[in-house]
Amino acid sequence: MSNLVRVSKENDVAVITIDNPPVNALSPGVPEGIWAAIDEMNDDPAVKAAVVIGSGRTFVAGADIKEFGKVTSGGPRRSLLPLLLHIEDSAKPVVMAIHGQAFGGGLELAMAGHYRVASPTAQVGQPEVKLGIIPGAGGTQRLPRLVGVAKAVEMCAEGKPVPAREAAALGLIDRLIEGDLLPGAVAFAREVTGKPVPKTRARAEKLGTPAENATIITAARDGARKKQRNLKAPLAAIDAIEAATKLPFEQGCQAEAKLFTDCLFSDQSKALIHVFFGEREVAKIPDVPKETPLIPVNRVAVVGSGTMGGGIAMVFVNAGIPVLLKDVDEPTLDAGMGKIRKNYASSVQRGRFTQAFVDERLQLITPVLSYDAFADVDMVVEAVFEGMALKKDVFADLDRICRSDAILASNTSTLNIDEIAAATSRPEAVIGTHFFSPANVMRLLEIVRGKKSSNEVIATCMQLSKKLGKIGVLVGNCRGFVGNRMFGPYRREAQFLVEEGAGVEAVDQALVDFGNAMGPLATGDLAGLDVGWRIRKEYRHLEKPGIRQPFAEDRLCEIGRYGQKTVRGWYLYDENRRASADLELPALLRKWSAEAGIPRRQISAEEIVDRCIYALVNEGARILEEGYALRAVDIDIIYLNGYGFPAYRGGPMWHADTVGLKKVYQRICEFHQQHGELWAPAPLLKRLAEAGKTFAEFDKEQVAAA
Ligand code: 3H9
At what angle do helices 105-112 and 81-88 cross, to 10 degrees? Predict the structure, then answer.
């Protein structure tokens, strides 16, 4: 018997416990252990039934995702199907007792049991599509037999978890067990002892008629193409469920296996698995030990009630942390609170929150005009207008008023954290918490480490990001930090392309087709073109003479076209902020290019994508080498969660690895020749390309060296 699976006896019921921390994944040894345990219980005449349960915090979170990489690099492939048939064919009833999660292979295992009982807080689901694959152990065949075709399609194509109560209503769970799960499951097992065992695969009553299924499947395919643009796995999951409706179980499983393998070997799946592990990797900071003491954050203050400050206040109160929201005068504060209320009202309207939830959250925000109550808070987030002098004043005030152990954070997106920290007597307490707009929606939180930020402050902010429902990525203190520093060259190229003759819509469309949520020019309109214009004016003295600078957005701003807020920017906007092409703009662009002496030409979608995406990659490589990002994967996670980069491409650095660094490097060398110094290849990129290596390998080497 494998030590990952234990068998004990509760009189006449065998208890099979899966014990493979942290999440009881079906790693090698676990399926073998379950198989042997089923045999043992069937061979023991004193045992009448079995309960399968997970040890620790969960039932089974699925197949071991780490194993997939081994399979795609030529390792052996182990199918779970024979085990699941073995369980289903057991003469004695097998009851699956679910707490925590039964996800992926975990739910497939549960569905092979004759019965399923669950704690009310448990969740079940087939989240494989989020990894670019589909259920590969009969999930697409057994699930529609238990919950019907429509729900199975939804669960497998969207991958969302289903709470136990809903699963019980669907017939996927046979009984909810309040209180202790194991005794409840054992009692249930005794109730069903001696009855004929129901096999999921033998059921057909929920499989629907061909006409009903055709409607469901067609609608699901249309929905997947729209909502999960360019993704292969949702369509494959729908195909597999369609097979369940048309083929006998065994043939359906064969169809599923083929679709599963196609997905597993796809670039999309490799990228999404990289993202799964990357999202967890970014929480690990090599020089901040896991056991670093955390500062309790139970009460927070936010300075500045503008768009960012208000959004940040919402983030904290949504997580149940009370907030003092400060601004300089009554009208500004009222306007800030008004925006927060409006924001919540629209969430209630869209069904995201209940009115009761919103009322409770609003109660947690205390608007204030002075720093008086700041002496009680554990953390302050400053979100005032982006200007160094103002920020320094605010931090000097905070230094005077706040407790010595309070965290002083700035939401600056561009300014030097060390300079801000120097305005205080406690730079170790100062850190950047760069939220992305809209703060209450975007998942990314760049946590900017100052030279003197203490480990406790860093560890607390990383931990806090989870509590706030954000993904925190630690970055170094350089201009623009990681995300915006890379976004500069990306948007610079978008402007250059337009100045060289590409159409505004053509540039945006090429990047949307690549998979980005939005094109770079439309993004500028959304953020406000004047923001960058002001920053460029502030930093103009730092520009090297003789280096080409984009001018198109400066010209647009000079004629009052700031983007959506002025209903004109790169596009024209109606009252619902819907964009349309501005037919007058091409003539203006031709005029501006002629004045700058830039010849215009036809530009392909391929060049648009290469110029914009490789500008990201080249800057990312510099950032990595300079140590402002800990790993290439950190950059990827930033881009996926803060900049709408498509997850199925794994992030800019993973995408470059997938294309091949040699190819990316060569293309950058071509751009260097054509466009000059701005395209000088990053030394790290050159080295990796010449050595035939990848950014992922660079990450592994860094981890090994740490
Ligand atoms: C599948 O089942 C395919 C099948 O059809 C069969 C085909 C043949 N494998 O998320 P956490 C690690 S595909 C390996 O921080 P939480 C995770 O990396 C699978 N490792 O905890 C982390 O490691 P570390 C379908 C896994 O409490 C640690 O466990 N299933 C797996 O916030 C803790 O994870 C899924 O997609 C795994 N399956 O959330 C479910 N799962 O500490 C994926 C987790 O070293 N998992 N780890 O960084 C989850 O959704 C969440 O982990 C879960 C717990 C909700 C379970």
Answer: 30
**To test the ligand 1 pocket, which listed residue (59, 65, 463) has its Cβ within 8 A of the most ligand atoms?**
65
Distance 63 CA to ligand 1 centre (A): 8
Decide: 28 and 67 in contact? Cβ < 8 Å.
yes
Contact by Cβ (8 Å): 403, 431: no
Cβ atoms 454, 325 nearer than 8 A: no
**In the numeric block, which tokens belong to residue 141?**
């065949």
128 is catalytic: yes
Q: What are phi and psi of 26, to 5 degrees?
A: -85, 60
User: Are 260 and 135 contacting, i.e. CB atoms less than 8 angstroms apart?
Assistant: yes
Q: Which of 88, 108, 154, 158 is catalytic?
A: 108
pLDDT in tens, 574-605: 998 999 999 999 999 999 999 999 999 999 99
Q: Which residue has the tokens 């006409």?
A: 211
Q: Which residues are CB-contacts of 692 (< 8 A; sequence separation ≥ 6)?
A: 662
Compute the half-sphere exposure of residue 559: CA atoms within 13 Å on the CB side of its CA: 13
Cα(105) to ligand 1 centroid in Å equals 11
- Pocket of ligand 1 from Cβ distances under 6 Å: 22-23, 25, 58, 61-66, 80, 101, 103-105, 108, 127-128, 131, 135-137, 139, 277, 280
Q: Which of 88, 128, 242, 499 is catalytic?
A: 128
Q: What is the pLDDT of residue 603?
A: 98
**Taking the CA of residue 318 as centre, how many other CA atoms within 13 Å lie in the half-sphere pointing to its CB?**
23
Q: For residue 2, what pLDDT is reported? A: 62
Under DSSP, the state recorded for 299 is: -
State in Å: Cα 344 to ligand 1 middle: 33
108: annotated active-site residue: yes
Return the minimum-mean-pLDDT range out of 284-288, 504-508, 533-537, 582-586: 533-537
Distance 62 CA to ligand 1 centre (A): 7
Alpha carbon of residue 422 to chain centroid: 34
| pLDDT tens sequence across 263-282 | 999 999 999 999 999 999 99
Averaged pLDDT score across all residues of the chain: 96
Residues paired with 101 in a beta bridge: 123
Closest residue to atom 43 of ligand 1, CA basis = 61
* Ligand 1 center from residue 274 Cα (angstroms): 13
**DSSP tag of 202:** G
At 67, list the tokens. 């194993």
